[in-house]
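User: Structure please.
Assistant: Input sequence and predicted structure:
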Amino acid sequence: MQFTSLSEVPGRRWTSRHHWDLVKSMMRGGNWLDVACASGLFLERVSDAGWRVTGIEPSLSLRRDAEQKPSKGT
């Protein structure tokens, strides 16, 4: 099985949604720092909810994927 992007890995979007549901039930807005943010899938969800986001990713290819996502934050 071959994927063209990390976001295509089965279950990745479900995991992101599940984690976000946990976070938003405990916290309301603010700043979000994601270290090792991969392709930025989770940051995209957090940014869409109005948080100011910053992602750090050491992998050049994953960082490029994250930089292509629209963001209301950093």
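The longest strand covers residues 31-35.
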